[in-house]
Inverse folding.
C-alpha cells in the first residue's frame, strides 16, 4: 500500500498522467464543439486515427512534425466533413454514420499506409516532436519537471481548455453554437444558421481530434501501426459525457483517465501480487464509478436529433 | 404466377445444389493456399512472418494465394469453411486461437490440408500443427538478461496474455532465477496488439522502477518498449525477428523465429505427400528458432555462457523451462 502511495506522490506519475491524458484531451475538447452543436461526437476515433496516419506521413515526407500536425488536423477535418455531410445535410442516423466512418477509417488508413510503404518488415520512423522546456518555469522545483517539459501538442491541449471555455460561454458565436444544440428551431427563428453551426462544430472536432492523433505517431511514438489509437477516440467521447458536456468537466475526466492508466502501469511495474487484468481495467472501473457518483447529467436537448429546417424547405 | 415462380425457384436451387455437389467431387484441388491472420500482415512481427511465407508460396512455388487479416474469433469457422469450399488445398491458420475451429473444420473437409502455426491442433490426418517452443526461447533470452542486468531489475512487456507469450515469460523468469537469483523480474501487460503508446508507457513505468533490461513480446509491445529505451542506457531484447533496427543502440539480441521457412517446408512436404497430420515442435534444436547477433554491449564471456545454454537446450540437458512449452 505504501508503495502505491509512493507512486501516487512521484513526479514521474504526475508527468505521465499529463502525457497520457493529452491526446484524449485534444480529441474531447474538439468533440465538445460537435456535441454542443447537437451532433454526437462518436466519430472521434476515426478522426483521430486518420490524424495519426496523416501526421506520420506528413512528418515522414517533409521531415517536420509541424507539417505532420497540420496534415493531421486536415485529415481529421476531412473525415469530419464527410460526417457532417451525412449527419447535417443528409440527416443520417448519427450513430450509424459515425460507426460506419470509424470502420472506414481503420480500413482506409491501413490501405494508405501499405500504399506508401508496402508490407515490409522495416521500421519506418518519422521525425517526432521534441520536448520543449519552458524557460525559467521548467527549472522550478517539483512543478517544473511535471508541467513544463512537454511536447508542443501537449501544451496546446491544456491551453485549449480556457480558450474553449471562453469561446463557448463568452462569445456570441459560442451562444449560437450551443443554441443549435439545445433548440435548433428557436435558434433558426432568431437567425442562427443551424446547419452551418453544426458543420463548423463537427469540423472543429475533426481538426482537434486529428491533432490528438498526431501525438501518437509523431509525439510519444515515431511510427505508425494500424489501429494504433486503440479506442482513445471512444474514451474521449465518454469523457465528454462524464464531464457533463462542460469544458472543465471534460478536462477533469480526461485527466482522471490519463492518471488512472498511468497509475495502473506503475502498479504493474511494482510487481505486487495484484492480477494485471484487474489493473488493466482499473481506468474503466474508475470511470464507471465516477459516472455513478456524478449522477444525472443533462445533455444538450437536441443532441443526436437531425435538424430539418422550418417548413421543410428541403425534402 | 407467384406459385409457379416459387416452384421454378425450388427446381433451380435443387439442380444447382446437385450439379455443384457432383462437380465438387471430381474437381482436383488446385495449387491454392489460403491464410488467416488475427492481426495486420504488416505488424513487423508474428503475422508478418507468416505473410512472408505465404508470399514465398506465391512467388517461388507457383501457388495461388488468398489472405484474410484481422480475423475475429467469431469468424474462424466461417472463414475456414469458406476457403475449404472454394477448393483451397492448404489452409493455414496462424495462431494458437484457431485450434478449436480447425479441429472442427478439418473433419468436415478431409481432402483439404490444414496447418496451424503456433498451436498444437493436429489429428494425424489432414490437420498439422507447428509449435514454436517459446519457453526455451524465453529461457535462453532470460539467461542473457540475467547476466547483463546491473540494477538486478529486469522488465518484461507483453501485449496480450496468450499461451505462447506466457510460456516465453515463464521460461525467462526461470532462467533469471537460475542464473541471477538476486535479480527481480517485473512483468507488465498492455492488453493490446496495436497500442504502441501503452507499450511505451508500460516500459517507461518499469524504467522508472530501475529496470535496465527489457524483453518485449507482441507487436505493439515490441514497438513501444523499443521507443521507450531509445536514448537511454536500458538494454532491449526483441522477439519474432531480428529487431536491431527498432533500437540499434540498445538491442542486445532477438529471438528469431523462422516461420516463413517452416511454412514453405511444410507445404513442400505436403506436395510430396509426406504431411501426416502431426505436431511439429519447432525450437532451437530444429533450427526453427535462433538468436540474432549479440549487441556490442554483450561481453565475450557472457556470449559464451549464453551459447553454452543454447547448446545445452539443443542437447536436451536443460528441460525445465518453467512449465510451459
Amino acid at each position: 500500500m505504501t508503495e502505491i502511495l509512493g507512486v501516487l506522490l512521484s513526479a514521474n506519475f504526475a508527468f505521465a498522467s499529463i502525457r497520457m491524458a493529452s491526446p484524449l484531451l485534444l480529441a474531447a475538447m474538439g468533440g465538445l464543439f460537435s456535441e454542443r452543436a447537437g451532433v454526437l461526437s462518436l466519430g472521434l476515433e476515426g478522426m483521430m486515427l486518420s490524424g495519426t496516419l496523416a501526421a506520420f506521413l506528413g512528418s515522414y515526407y517533409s521531415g517536420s512534425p509541424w507539417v505532420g500536425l497540420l496534415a493531421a488536423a486536415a485529415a481529421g477535418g476531412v473525415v469530419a466533413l464527410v460526417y457532417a455531410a451525412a449527419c447535417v445535410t443528409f440527416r443520417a442516423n448519427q450513430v450509424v454514420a459515425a460507426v460506419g466512418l470509424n470502420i472506414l477509417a481503420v480500413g482506409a488508413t491501413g490501405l494508405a499506409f501499405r500504399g506508401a510503404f508496402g508490407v515490409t518488415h522495416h521500421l519506418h520512423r518519422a521525425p517526432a516532436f521534441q520536448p520543449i522546456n519552458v524557460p525559467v518555469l521548467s527549472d522550478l522545483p517539483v512543478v517544473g519537471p511535471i508541467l513544463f517539459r512537454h511536447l508542443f501538442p501537449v501544451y496546446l491541449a491544456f491551453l485549449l481548455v480556457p480558450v474553449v471555455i471562453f469561446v463557448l460561454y463568452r462569445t456570441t458565436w459560442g451562444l449560437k453554437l450551443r443554441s443549435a444544440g439545445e433548440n435548433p428551431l428557436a435558434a433558426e427563428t432568431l437567425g442562427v444558421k443551424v446547419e452551418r453551426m453544426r458543420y463548423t462544430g463537427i469540423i472543429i472536432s475533426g481538426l482537434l481530434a486529428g491533432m490528438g492523433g498526431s501525438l501518437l505517431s509523431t509525439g510519444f511514438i515515431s511510427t505508425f501501426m494500424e489501429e494504433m489509437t486503440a479506442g482513445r477516440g471512444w474514451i474521449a467521447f465518454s469523457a465528454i459525457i462524464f464531464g457533463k458536456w462542460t469544458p472543465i468537466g471534460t478536462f477533469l475526466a480526461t485527466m482522471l483517465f490519463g492518471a488512472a492508466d498511468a497509475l495502473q502501469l506503475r502498479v504493474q511495474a511494482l510487481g505486487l501480487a495484484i492480477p494485471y487484468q484487474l489493473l488493466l481495467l482499473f481506468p474503466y472501473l474508475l470511470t464507471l464509478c465516477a459516472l455513478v457518483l456524478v449522477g444525472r447529467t443533462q445533455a444538450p436537448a437536441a443532441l443526436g436529433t437531425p435538424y430539418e429546417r422550418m417548413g421543410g424547405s428541403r425534402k | 404466377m407467384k406459385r409457379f415462380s416459387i416452384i421454378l425457384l425450388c427446381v433451380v436451387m435443387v439442380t444447382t445444389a446437385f450439379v455443384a455437389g457432383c462437380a465438387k467431387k471430381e474437381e482436383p484441388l488446385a495449387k491454392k493456399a489460403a491464410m488467416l491472420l488475427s492481426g495486420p500482415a504488416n505488424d513487423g512481427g508474428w503475422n508478418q512472418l507468416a505473410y512472408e511465407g505465404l508470399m514465398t508460396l506465391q512467388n517461388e512455388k507457383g501457388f495461388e494465394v488468398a489472405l484474410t487479416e484481422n480475423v475475429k474469433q467469431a469468424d474462424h469457422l466461417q472463414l475456414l469453411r469458406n476457403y475449404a469450399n472454394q477448393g483451397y488445398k492448404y489452409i493455414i491458420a496462424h495462431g494458437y486461437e484457431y485450434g478449436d475451429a480447425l479441429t472442427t473444420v478439418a473433419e468436415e473437409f478431409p481432402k483439404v490440408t490444414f496447418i496451424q502455426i503456433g498451436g498444437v491442433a493436429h489429428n494425424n490426418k489432414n490437420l498439422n500443427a507447428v509449435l514454436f517452443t517459446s519457453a526455451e526461447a524465453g529461457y535462453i533470452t532470460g539467461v542473457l538478461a540475467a547476466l547483463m542486468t546491473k540494477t538486478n531489475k529486469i522488465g518484461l512487456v507483453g501485449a496480450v496474455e496468450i499461451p505462447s507469450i506466457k510460456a516465453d515469460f515463464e521460461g525467462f523468469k526461470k532462467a533469471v532465477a537460475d542464473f541471477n537469483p538476486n535479480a527481480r523480474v517485473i512483468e507488465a501487460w498492455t492488453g493490446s496488439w496495436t497500442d504502441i503508446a501503452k507499450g511505451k508507457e508500460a516500459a517507461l513505468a518499469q524504467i522508472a522502477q530501475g529496470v535496465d533490461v527489457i524483453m518485449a513480446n507482441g507487436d505493439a509491445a515490441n514497438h513501444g518498449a523499443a521507443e521507450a529505451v531509445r536514448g537511454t542506457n536500458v538494454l532491449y531484447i526483441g522477439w519474432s525477428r531480428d529487431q536491431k533496427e527498432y533500437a540499434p543502440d540498445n538491442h542486445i539480441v532477438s529471438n528469431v523465429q523462422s516461420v516463413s521457412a517452416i511454412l514453405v517446408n511444410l507445404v513442400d512436404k505436403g506436395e510430396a505427400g509426406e504431411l501426416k497430420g502431426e505436431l511439429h515442435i519447432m525450437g532451437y534444436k530444429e533450427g526453427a528458432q535462433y538468436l540474432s547477433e549479440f549487441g556490442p554491449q554483450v561481453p565475450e564471456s557472457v556470449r559464451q555462457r549464453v551459447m553454452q545454454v543454447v547448446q545445452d537446450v539443443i542437447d536436451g540437458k536443460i528441460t525445465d523451462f518453467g512449465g510451459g512449452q
